[in-house]
């Protein structure tokens, strides 16, 4: 069965950096576009970033643009989220997700675009 396993979360001070990883199994990773979402306590799930199956396109939310970078290594079945200049408001559980189709415009910011989800990893940014 398909599994997406996130890692790399933790506690970091504001202004610091973290790199999240998501390793996939049970699917042909190189044919899936990948996304990162996050959910803070008491808030709705929020789109963070997405990357097309061939790394030819990336898409970011305005709240992380310029601070976060999404990348992937298809040989390792892994997608990454490099998070720099972290802020307390970045505190959330971060989830990776896999989508068989890459949509145009804001499609990849919608959770419904994704077919599979990981269990999440906690990121806490202290002030």
Q: Can you describe what's shown?
A:
The strands form 2 sheets. Strands 2, 4, 5, 6, 9, 10 and 11 form a 7-stranded mixed sheet that branches. The chain has a 4-stranded antiparallel sheet with strand order 1-3-8-7, with no helix packed on it. It has about 130 residues and is mainly β. About 0% of the residues lie in helices and about 50% in strands. The N and C termini lie far apart (about 40 Å). It contains no helices and 11 strands. Strand 4 (about 35-40) and strand 5 form a beta hairpin. The relative contact order is 0.31. The radius of gyration is 13 Å and the shape is globular.
Helix-strand layout with pairing:
Blueprint: E1 3-7, E2 10-13, E3 18-25, E4 33-39, E5 46-51, E6 58-60, E7 68-73, E8 78-83, E9 92-99, E10 116-117, E11 121-126
Parallel strand pairs: 2-11
Antiparallel strand pairs: 1-3, 3-8, 4-5, 4-9, 5-6, 7-8, 9-10, 9-11
Q: Biggest β-sheet, characterized?
A: 7 strands, mixed
Overall 3D shape: globular
Count of DSSP E strands? 11
The secondary-structure element order is: EEEEEEEEEEE
Overall helicity: under 10%
- Please tally the helical runs, counting DSSP H or I stretches of 4 or more residues: 0
Q: CA-to-CA gap between the ends?
A: 40 Å
The secondary-structure class comes to mainly beta
The stretches of 5 or more residues where confidence is low (pLDDT under 50) are none
Rg (CA only): 13 Å
What is the typical, i.e. mean, pLDDT? Answer: 96
Strand percentage, roughly? over 45%
């Amino acid at each position: 069965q398909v599994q997406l396993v996130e890692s790399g979360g933790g506690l970091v001070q504001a202004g610091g950096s973290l790199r999240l990883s998501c390793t996939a199994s049970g699917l042909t990773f190189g044919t899936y576009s990948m996304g990162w979402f996050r959910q803070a306590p008491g808030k709705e799930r929020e789109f963070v970033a997405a990357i097309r199956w061939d790394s030819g396109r990336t898409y970011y939310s305005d709240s992380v643009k310029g601070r976060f970078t999404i990348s992937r290594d298809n040989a390792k079945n892994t997608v990454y989220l490099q998070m720099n200049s972290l802020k307390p408001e970045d505190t959330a559980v971060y989830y990776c997700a896999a989508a068989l189709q890459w949509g145009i415009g804001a499609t990849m910011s919608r959770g419904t675009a994704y077919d599979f989800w990981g269990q999440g990893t906690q990121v806490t940014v202290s002030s």
